[in-house]
Specification:
The complex is a heterodimer of chains A (85) and B (387). Helix content of chain A is 53%, strand content 0%. With 85 residues, chain A is mainly alpha-helical. Chain A has one domain: ACP-like (Non-ribosomal Peptide Synthetase Peptidyl Carrier Protein, Chain A, Orthogonal Bundle). Chain B folds into three domains: 4-117, Butyryl-Coa Dehydrogenase, subunit A, domain 1; 120-220, Butyryl-CoA Dehydrogenase, subunit A, domain 2 (Beta Barrel), CATH 2.40.110.10; 226-380, Butyryl-CoA Dehydrogenase, subunit A, domain 3, CATH 1.20.140.10. The chains are: A mainly alpha (85), B alpha+beta (387).
Chain lengths: 85, 387
Amino acid sequence: MPRRIADDVRLILREHGRLAVDVGSLADDSNLYEAGLTSHASVSVMLALEEQFGIEFPERMLRRGAFASIGAIRHGLEELIGADA
Amino acid sequence: MTPLAVARGPLEAARRIAEAVAGPTADAVDRDARFPRETIDALREARLLGALVPRELGGLGATVRELAACCEAIGRACASSAMIYAMHQIEVACLVRHAATSPFFREYLSALADGEWLLASATSEAGVAGDLRRSICAVERHGDRIRVVKRAPVISYGEEADGMLLTARRAPDAAAADQVLVLARREDVRLSGSGEWDTLGMRGTRSLGFSVEVDASADQVLPAPFEAIASETMLPVSHILWTSLWLGIASDAVSRARTYVRAEARRTPGVVPISALRLAETVAELGTMTATVHAGLADFEEHQNDPEALSSLGFTIRMNNLKTSAARMAPEIVARSLGVCGLSGYRCDSPYALGRHLRDAHSASLMINNDRVLSSNAAMLLVHKEE
């Protein structure tokens, strides 16, 4: 399951993140902002993730740290999906 | 002699300078579009430029609340001076809040407080369409030296500053949004200015375009990434200090309108002048603006030591709302005050003159255009939920 989430996150980042580097070259803990994620693009990424996983990020997750790396995003998603189940 | 801000506190010092220096020179500064040297020198002498620097580094350890009150007080007298003071303090706030762990910057802040240096901001850049969060220029490292070449379409009071903070990409191969903030002292910079500053208002800020060449020590790159500095300090402190000085412009306009109506009333005792009705309305508007600005300040104070809260979408949206609302209200309140004073406010040679206030207040929705701020909120609101 965790593997699958990370793959989806990478696909969404590739499509909506407008990163300056190839998503494939990023480690799970690479800093996405350093990879060129802008605040505008991060909104697109959040929207796409909400649609893909059928969840809504609560207010407490809508902060910079929660979207700083693929690992951080996966962690947040696992928490939300776990909470739904 | 003990400096005024040490003896009387920052706000009282700012009030006195506003009354004795900024007010009397404001019309000349505006007319000639010149740097308000007398006022900045007076602020320097009073030790108000280094006010935000912590006491242990030789400053006054002033709070953002105190600075906001100073900006409002100076803004009542001379908006250009208040804007220069605000922009300088925004830069100092970035250093105090994000660089004070570095030995170089501790020493620099202490020297800044001692020399009462004036800092400018070189965040704008040709080719990024006004986006603070993207840079084209980059920091090139050569051993322990760095080099940055930037084309800045606007650096307010750039010619007068003792130093400036500029944004640049972290390295030549870094993404446009992967930015750092670099301190360039006067001796590190080669500036070539271009153009003139002949504007409708805020004429004393002398916001010329420059080509900037920096050759500095690698220590002069702030340790924190710019995106953290921007959301945790630059954005909220800018919006708080700017809206405070806009409040000063609006307050002074209303104060002129009140004086005008009282004089009218004294001429016709027993009759409430027709202008009093419009004044009542304007005073209510000013009350709303005051509450808006104070609420923004309280919001920042509540979260100022919580980086996660400051970087949240909710907080960013609220700070943006503070900026756009106050920017909309300021010229509206001045225009209403003009309506109250009538021809006396329209004349440039009357004690009720409001032309300068009106022109200065119109800058509010243009500096970081309200539409840009609103569209940024529009995007964030797509994912933001009510708290």
